[in-house]
Amino acid sequence: MSLRIRSAFVAGRAGRSRLARLSACLFASLLLALTLHAGDAAAQRRDLTIGITQYPSTLHPNIDAMAAKSYVENMTMRPFTTFDADWQLVCMLCVELPTFENGGAVRLPGQGKDGGDAVALTYRIQPDATWGDGTPVTTDDVLFTYDVGRHPQSGVSNAELYRDITKIEVVDAKTFVMTSRKLTFNYNAINDFRVLPAHLERPVFEADRANYRTRTLFDRDPTNPGLAFGPYRLTEVELGAFLVVEPNPHWWGEKPYFERIVVRVIENTAALEANLLSGGIDMIAGELGLSVDQAIGFEQRNGDRFRVVYKPGLVYEHLDVRLDNPILRDVRVRQALMHGMDRQALVDQLFGGRQTVARSDVNPLDWVHDDTTPVYGYDPAKAGALLDEAGWSTISRGIRQNAQGEPLRIPLVSTAGNRTRELIQQVLQAQWRQIGVDVAIEVQPPRVLFSESLTRRRFQGLALFAWIGSPENVPRTTLHSESIPTEGNGWAGQNYPGYASPDMDRLLDRIEVELDRERRKALWSDLQHLYAADLPALPLFFRSDVHIWPLWLEGVEPTGHQYSSTQTVERWRAADAG
Fold first, then answer.
1. Do residues 179 and 108 lie in contact, with contact meaning Cβ atoms separated by under 8 Å?
2. Which of 321, 263, 273 is nearest to 296 (CA)?
3. Helical H runs in 77-197?
4. SS3 for 261-283, per residue?
5. Is the pLDDT reported for residue 446 higher than 80?
6. pLDDT at 11 over 80
């Protein structure tokens, strides 16, 4: 919903003559040898080094939703359910999706929240799923994960998921029945229920539940093999710098090809590109790499050396608004900021027009998108009139003031090292200056921004970052009032603005339980219109991910949504590897 450089040979005249004759004799055979063995050289590549721009704020699967963590942990763990590259819901840790048709899902009329229907779902864990220390993945792990998820101070990102689960009944070591108090349209998707190793984490949790998030072995002992059950396990970690994974000998699925994958964190995107060209890294992850504008220039210069793949997706670049800020609390100020932005010019100038200006947080690629949602066009005069109406009518040295002489000054924070975001900050600063708004630019390391400033709601004005969603993803954790992070709930939830709207809460509640597609689409339309009116966040654009791979790499499947390409990392291989 995150984060994130050589021996000379000099011959005499006679030496040059002999060298020329020798070269003439050997050239053809050398060329033939290179041709015959190019495939063998590629097949011998067993190490892969990936560059990303952010380091995870935590490695715990259920705390702090951040793209950098998801990218790494999709190599070492697998969710019960996920969306694949075709945007279809599939099983990974489970054997089969429970449905009403196959009998795995059972409707419980009148037994759900507020008298609605509940649903009982039977999941079977992959029979050979085993933690990296040889301990089987069982329903005991499922029960422990449920205990952690529903604890009010555990700090899990999707606390709503665990609140909705009313009970989990064990059938056997590999089978359990999960009962949810709501029958939703995506009733069998439990993507965020990331199973934890009870045999390792339970003692830590029981020793100090209130401080579990700071004591978890995922951060204190991340290379413990018992924390992984995916095709790879972490073997080396350097905080803020890199993570290394190697094959998990207890992995039950297809044997991974690479013997060692290094994920290097290079927060500065210019340095990221330089490392790719110098051979310091082999590829740049599209999920956390170069922006479109940087990739266009890179492809023009180096398109013959690398594959550059543009993947449009559900990446929402926006500005979270601190609604507790007395200036930004006034919706007229937020509306003025929208009219004071020339977002189309920004997209055209910085990205060659390859990004889509956003109306709300719902992507046009998603079937529930409503293209009648109002658009805030660039209109400085209207922006000025709104600010006048809001009480910011006096202008001194180009900056508006209120009746008390206080300047209209707004902090704007984003991720350090991301050249494109820094450019966006500067463009917005200049555009808003034209309507009398003074913007104070700040950058923070991604792990600080995401783990402290946002999660604990310490940012003071606007925060520029991206949410990465999944198909028809109900934004409960970002928009519902129950998802506002507080000290009392262990900073769970992702409603960082502090948006509390009864109308939005009701829409979110209704969308989830509406099974009829047409009626649900109408509710989605209402949500997008309300979002555009209230502006809990200021929409910018929807981003394309740009994947840059070496020519010899095969098997990477960009998804275009929040579940990264690494969830099928075992299929990656060097060309002609067989």
1. yes
2. 273
3. 139-150, 159-164
4. EEEEECCCHHHHHHHHHHCCCCE
5. yes
6. no
